[in-house]
Amino acid sequence: MRFFAKSLQTYLLIGLPFVIACATWQSFTPEREIAESDSGLTTFIWDVLSWNVVMWFGALVILLATILFSSSIRKEIISRIADIKDRDERDVQITANAAKNSFIASLAFMIVLLFLSVFSLSMSPIPPAQQYDGKTKQVHISMNFRLFDENPGKSDLSNTGGFNSRDFSPSASACLLALITWQLLSFRLSARKESRSE
Amino acid sequence: MPRIESKIEIGNCIQDSRLAMQITQQELADAVNVTRATIIALEKGSYNPSLELAFRLANFFNVTVDKIFFQKRS
Questions:
Q1: What pLDDT does B39 receive?
Q2: Secondary structure class of A123 (helix, strand, coil)
Q3: How far is A88 from chain B (nearest CA, A)?
Q4: What ipTM was assigned to the predicted interfaces of this complex?
Q5: Is B53–A89 a contact, with Cβ atoms under 8 angstroms apart?
């Protein structure tokens, strides 16, 4: 499994310049023009680059799924991205304290963002006919939580029998709530696992 | 019941012991399986080691733990 993940990472790194080259080429020359080119070499290179994009995207999805479901590979890859050092007991202690502080700060920030996304405050004048007690303005505090983003018009693809995942994208509030819940549950489970392994 | 002080300051003579053996910080770090940064932090007094590391250091210097580490009296 480790070898598989390492191979995926290597392919993603090596394949990235070719993906960028394909995207850059297509931004200058329309795809149809390239595909209908008289030069066999041009169409061959285009085919290779296009298939590389498909395979690269597939490899990325597989690696992300592996990170999600395999704790050992997740630890290895994320540790490398975050530059987490584990060389001796002092590094472990530093990492633990830094992780705790970072977790607390991130959780606080997400709670603030959730509050800002769910609650809204507005001030408006009261219509003259409805004014009473000399009050001319009113303040509204409202709470609005939606699971999915509002789509005033669905994407064009839905009418032609196609599918676009953006038509079902979760709202910012839903994402924040999910992240906060995940953070808390994940921390509690990890702490319990740590205390049992002692 | 006597009350235990909440914060105990611990000193050590790791640097003196190391210099007496004429070895570098890196050599000591390699011998007790830690990084040089940890040896520096230990000698400065900014890091207290675990019991295991304390015993490894004592075994390396061929002394008991209380000869290396001591409680600083305020």
A1: 96
A2: strand
A3: 5
A4: 0.84
A5: yes
